[in-house]
Amino acid sequence: MYKIKHVFSAILFMMAAVVVAQDDTTITKEPGHTNQSKFRQMHQEFATPNTYRSASGTPGPDYYQQQADYKMNIELDDKNAKIYGEETITYHNNSPDVLEYLWVQLDQNVRAKDSKSPLRNPSRIAVAYQPATFTKEYMSEPFDGGFNIEHVKDTDGKALPYTINRTMMRIDLPTPLASGEKFAFDIKWWYNIPDHTVDRARSGYEYFEKDGNRSYVIAQFFPRMAVYNDVEGWQNHQFWGSGEFALPFGNYEVNITVPADHILDATGELLNRKEVFSKTMMERYERAKKSYDKPVLIVTQEEAEQAEKSFSEKKKTWKFRAENVRDYGFATSRKFIWDMQAVKIGNKDVMAVSLYPKEGNPLWEEQSTKAVASTLKTYSKHTFDYPYHKAISVHAKNQGMEYPMICWNYGRPNEDGTYSDRVKFGMISVIIHEVGHNFFPMIVNSDERQWGWMDEGLDTFMQYLAEQQFGKENPEVIAPNESYPSRRGAPAKIVPYMSGDQSTLAPIMSNPENVYQLGPNAYGKPATALNILRETVMGPELFDHAFKTYSQRWMFKHPSPEDFFRTMEDASAVDLDWFWRSWFYTTDYVDIGVKGVKKYYVSDKPTPEMEEYIAANNMSPSDLPPLVYLSEESEGAEGKTPSETSQTMNAFMMDNLTPEQRAAVKEPKFFYEVTFEKPGGIPMPLIVEYTYADGSKENVTFPAEIWRKSDKEVSRVMATQKELVGVVVDPKAETADIDTSNNSWPKKEEESDFNKFKNNLEGDN
Fold first, then answer.
1. In which band, very low, low, confident or very high, does the pLDDT at 764 lie, cut at 50, 70 and 90?
2. DSSP three-state, residue 267
3. pLDDT tens digits along 94-133
4. Which residues contact 571 (CB under 8 A, 6 or more apart)?
5. Judging by DSSP bridges, how do beta strands 390-395 and 99-105 pair with one another?
6. Backbone angles phi, psi at 570, to 5 degrees
7. What are phi and psi of 266, to 5 degrees?
8. Pick from 390, 416, 451: which residue ends a domain?
9. Of 67, 228, 407, 724, which residue is most buried, by most CB within 10 angstroms?
10. Does one domain contain both 503 and 513?
11. Of 178, 200, 181, 203, which is closest to residue 192 (Cα–Cα)?
12. Burial of 733: CB neighbours in 10 Å, binned 0-12, 13-18, 19+
């Protein structure tokens, strides 16, 4: 047997040499090339590991991060919609560098009269305008919402020189700030609060004409320190509007003065609850701390409706303290209904909280706090136990924005209290998403200004898991035989985007200001990629461990994209460079199909290729050792075993195998060579469903590495006892394949989803 194998190997080697020699005489050699394999390692794309960030994705031994502590006194002028503030910032230089100046973010300057942000995009005449849009665009003076800086001083009252460059303020230090030192300074400021319903500002008020009240959701309201780290130095990229925020962690002491009849909640622990709560509110609060199954109303709708009429001239100050947070936000109004519920997270209780005007009911009273509680449990399971003592959902028209412990969310019923499923699920989903932002980026503190996908994409992926879990937990919302109607996350949802015009696509690894379609790019595509990575490439067990490892390594720290990519590989032993490159660094798409199927039979008769080789080498068949051939044509061989159709095979079994061994051998009756093609650029696991003549099916998943040596097409030989009648690639639509018309053999006649999508677009145009 060894001799036969040895001789046959030599023959195959000679045949290959002949083919190469023939090719050399007819084909012009192409010039050499660099490594173009999609499976090459990402040494060129990734930053070089160092003592700050290791090759494994962990913080290195010299990792550092700065700290910025704030003491603030804030007053809200409800009559004039203005906010005033004085703050003392204590900045801790934990870096090894000496700092000559500090950079402070003035994000409200994006709304200044002279802001360049409205000028950054081209404009054209529209086909038609709504009157309000036309008036705002062409007939209104710009809103003056920028910061008015009254002074910048050191703690001794001495003025500090500063320079404002749009949304960034440089403070020049009197003496350089050495490593390990800290510097404290004061800023006094005010600005006009915008109506956030006009152009969906992230922060501002909504005016309720019927009762004359405003509801405030306030954030980016104070000058905030920029991040200084080992990756960017100072992250002082201007705030244009889309790229969100990069902020250091710190401790906050905040006093907020508002009208005495307002209800207010904010980032941090309320320190003077007994001063600002009535006796009845305190009793309800104590009950809420022990209520784990449903919310307790702290302020009822009836009480909120009564408060709407009062317009108190008195003031009340709410005092908060927050430790190790990266930002601060608060919401206040006399219109607010307030409910709370305890949630068991690990070994401690967390309060799930909702604030909403009567205009949000009955939907908000029914679903908001329930969604907060469910989100905290699901996210904690997949990352780390939620570390803060509360999470607040605030109702705000057309809003969806996040801050530590507090977020604003849309979803408003009709005036008669009715609402559609679209409104209901939209509200639940935005609450899950914004509460989920507590984990990414409020705790796993990525640089949103540069890498929008690191918070939005990871959060949208987790949102998908949390939505599906919410559906399972709430049969009154989702029927037991149905799944939650997630907008993003499922592979099929991203197909229209990934199959779109390449001139309007950008890689995920792009600054959020520079992408064409921010929603699909920063939210949908990374969420889908991670869902596919979890379900199809790695499997939930490996993925979940690696994702939790990343989350816990980088909680309360500043990770970079490479830290995420490296940790996912480090904690799973799965080489994913091909995946990151394809999904995150390119605009490639998935398209894998079945090119063809050939049927073979076992025979003693040489194939035409072998006969050609024998003739070319002046040989006779007797010069060859006994061989077995697989031929496309073999009369009378269909449905017979190899030993029945090949005397050589039969003799081999008789001469080399014992009767027991022969009985154990499985002799397939059918042999097929299935060729798969890959018109798309992204290599993916090859998921195949084989259907046989008896109606049975077999599913096989080949790893993505099957494409490592041939990026366009690959073949697999299969030997089976049953006749093959059908082959389908990606039968459960797991890979976001943009064109399913080539996914089947025999080819199906019905129109593919991709072609239907294209035709629909053409019809719309």
1. very low
2. coil
3. 999 999 999 999 999 999 888 888 888 888 898 898 887 7
4. 57, 545, 546, 549, 550
5. unpaired
6. -60, -40
7. -160, 175
8. 451
9. 407
10. yes
11. 203
12. middle
* Neighbouring-strand partners of residue 170: 103, 163
Angle at 455 between CA 450 and CA 460, to 5 degrees: 135
With H, G, I as helix, E, B as strand and everything else as coil, classify residue 708: coil
CATH code for the domain in which residue 485 is found = 1.10.390.10
Cα separation, 360 vs 674, in Å, equals 58
Range(s) of the domain holding residue 171: 68-120+131-308+316-451
Segment 709-760, tens digit of pLDDT: 999 999 999 999 999 999 999 999 999 999 999 999 998 765 444 455 444 4
Structure pTM?
Answer: 0.92
Q: 487 and 428: one domain?
A: no
Asked if 213 and 181 sit in the same domain, the reply is: yes
Tokens 């609402």 belong to: 419
Residue 517 lies in a domain: yes
Structure tokens at 102: 């500090």
Cα–Cα distance between 615 and 277 in angstroms, integer? 100
The burial of 192, by beta-carbon neighbours within 10 Å (0-12 exposed, 13-18 middle, 19 or more buried), is given as middle
Q: Any alpha helices (H) in 604-680, and if so which ranges?
A: 608-616, 642-645, 647-656, 659-664
Q: Say whether both 670 and 759 belong to one domain.
A: yes
CB-side neighbour CA atoms (13 Å) of 659: 0
The pLDDT mean for the chain works out to 92
Q: Across the strands, what pairs with 349? A: 344
335 and 414 fall within a common domain: yes
User: Could you tell me the sign of the dihedral formed by the alpha carbons of 572, 574, 577, 580, in that order?
Assistant: negative
Instruction: Read off the pLDDT band of 4 (50, 70, 90).
Output: very low
Pick the closest to residue 329 from 269, 266, 396 (CA basis): 266
Q: Are 570 and 580 in contact (CB under 8 A)?
A: no
Tokens of 408: 């604003």
Range 447-472 average pLDDT: 97
Annotate 358-389 with DSSP letters as a single string. Answer: GGGTTHHHHHHHHHHHHHHHHHHHHS----SS
Report the alpha-carbon angle 166-168-172, nearest 5: 120
Cβ pair 145, 192 in contact under 8 A: yes
Q: Are residues 555 and 674 in the same domain?
A: no
User: Is 2's pLDDT higher than 50?
Assistant: no
Taking residue 725's Cβ as centre, other Cβ atoms within 10 Å add up to 14
- pLDDT value for 12: 55
d(CA 493, CA 712): 25
CATH assignment at residue 358: 2.60.40.1730
Q: 263 with 137, same domain?
A: yes
Q: Domain check: are 186 and 249 in the same one?
A: yes
Using the 3D structure, point to which of 451, 486, 519 is the last residue of a domain.
451
Is 86 part of any domain?
yes
Q: pLDDT-derived band of residue 1, with 50, 70 and 90 as boundaries? A: very low
Q: How many domains does the chain have?
A: 3
Residue ranges of alpha helices (H) inside 397-501 are 421-436, 453-473, 495-498
Residue type, 72: M
Closest CA to 712 of 676, 659, 738: 676
Centre a 10 Å sphere on the Cβ of residue 300 and count the other Cβ atoms it contains. Answer: 15
